[in-house]
């Protein structure tokens, strides 16, 4: 039977992190032979302005960003979490937001020093930082690199002023180009985030953005279909001139042709990489690896020998900082229902074009592959899943109807 244990903020962590660790080690229903690789996610919750389509935990600050206080809070949050990851090495770090490039060079240097002093981070760890063109300068990028950041991910979205304006971005096309140039001049490993199906966008303009991005010679691109998410300004006042489904499908087809022709591999729904440049951090998410999430609103997933837990931190920056300094930044912490685990694994694994080795299911979930055998057989029979036994891999049809395929594994 499924177990669901909610640990209120005032419960385990308030009685001390060691208590919390003991609770997570008590007997459960799963049998994990080994714990998965561990990543660290650090959330920075401020942006210069809130974009109308954005549903991330990002806030326009009312005054100066309280950088020093926030770094203190991150440190306290990490220290309170350490008993949950004792003895585990960190393979990748992702500093996301929000706009973490609003951090000063000294602030970022302190943050990475604080992390390294408390966690065994691999010497060759991928350390990614997100940046936005409005807050991008070569000198700052160099300082970030010298502090240890080795991968930069820039939220370009478009190089065209006509489409950046309705997105509410603070940068224009010229700044987007300058930021991409600055990034590739400093970092070997750069990702550019782009969006398509933007209000009023034509097929030619969409592909021009792709060509412009390719011109910078980056090794990784993330290309997202603009979606109207609940609880955003766009949800309340939807743009009236969004491309229709046919045009959006033509854009998608054009993107596949352009990027495929340029030697990029579409290894995940929205992620494109040249050989050897896949995002190690994101691959850990998609292969159901573990991640400790610290910072306002950060989410985490941690495995223990007999359970898998999900955690979330308090969302509002002020409440988070106060909570973290009291030793209790948790908004939620619960064991995954045993019945929900196969669905969670498959939601992630099926995003990958090559899927995952079949053996990974038992390794990461602590459950037998038999628990999804019937759904797998049905998905194979419908042509959505590759019948080869050694991998769980969506077919081309399965990738086209990914939502339907994923739904087959949700109990
Ligand atoms: S810059 Fe990014 S994180 Fe910030 S509000 Fe805009 S979309 Fe959201």
From TrEMBL:
Pfam families reported for this sequence: HemN_C, Radical_SAM
Main location: cytoplasm
SUPFAM superfamilies for this protein: Radical SAM enzymes
Subcellular location, record wording: Cytoplasm
Superkingdom in the source lineage: Bacteria
SMART domains: Elp3 (SM00729)
Known function: Probably acts as a heme chaperone, transferring heme to an unknown acceptor. Binds one molecule of heme per monomer, possibly covalently. Binds 1 [4Fe-4S] cluster. The cluster is coordinated with 3 cysteines and an exchangeable S-adenosyl-L-methionine.
Protein name, UniProt field: Heme chaperone HemW
Lineage: Bacteria, Pseudomonadati, Pseudomonadota, Betaproteobacteria, Burkholderiales
Gene behind this protein: hemW
């Amino acid at each position: 039977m499924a177990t669901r244990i909610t640990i209120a903020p005032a419960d385990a962590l308030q009685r001390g992190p060691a208590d919390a660790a003991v609770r997570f080690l008590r007997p459960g229903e799963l049998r994990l032979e080994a714990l998965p690789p561990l990543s660290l996610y650090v959330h920075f919750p401020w942006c210069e302005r809130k974009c109308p389509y954005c549903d991330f935990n990002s806030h326009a600050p009312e005054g100066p960003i309280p950088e020093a206080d926030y770094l203190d809070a991150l440190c306290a949050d990490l220290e309170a979490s350490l008993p949950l990851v004792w003895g585990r090495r960190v393979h990748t770090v992702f500093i996301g937001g929000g706009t973490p490039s609003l951090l000063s060079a000294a602030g970022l240097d302190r943050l990475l020093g604080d992390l390294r002093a408390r966690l065994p981070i691999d010497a060759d760890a991928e350390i990614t930082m997100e940046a936005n063109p409005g807050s991008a300068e070569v000198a700052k990028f160099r300082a970030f690199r010298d502090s240890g950041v080795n991968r930069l991910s820039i939220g370009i979205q478009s190089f065209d002023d006509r489409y950046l304006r309705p997105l509410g971005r603070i940068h224009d096309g010229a700044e987007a180009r300058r930021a991409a140039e600055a990034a590739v001049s400093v970092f070997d490993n750069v990702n550019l985030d782009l969006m398509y199906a933007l209000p009023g966008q034509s097929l030619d303009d969409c592909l021009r953005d792709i060509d412009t991005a390719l011109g910078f010679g980056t090794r990784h691109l993330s290309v997202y279909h603009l979606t109207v998410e609940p609880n955003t300004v766009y949800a309340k006042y939807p743009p009236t001139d969004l491309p229709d489904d046919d045009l959006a499908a033509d854009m998608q087809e054009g993107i596949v042709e352009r990027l495929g022709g340029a030697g990029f591999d579409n290894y995940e729904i929205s992620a494109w990489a040249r050989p050897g440049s896949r995002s190690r951090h994101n691959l850990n998410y998609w292969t159901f690896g573990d991640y400790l999430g610290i910072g306002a609103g950060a989410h985490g997933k941690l495995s223990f020998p007999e359970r898998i837990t999900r955690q979330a931190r308090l969302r509002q920056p002020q409440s988070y900082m106060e909570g973290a300094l009291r030793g209790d930044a948790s908004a939620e912490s619960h064991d995954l229902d045993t019945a929900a685990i196969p669905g969670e694994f498959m939601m992630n694994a099926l995003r990958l074009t090559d899927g995952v080795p079949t053996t990974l299911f038992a390794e990461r979930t602590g459950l037998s592959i038999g628990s999804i055998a019937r759904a797998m057989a049905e998905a194979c029979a419908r042509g959505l899943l590759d019948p080869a036994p050694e991998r769980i891999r969506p077919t081309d049809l399965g990738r086209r109807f990914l939502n339907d395929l994923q739904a087959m594994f949700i109990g």
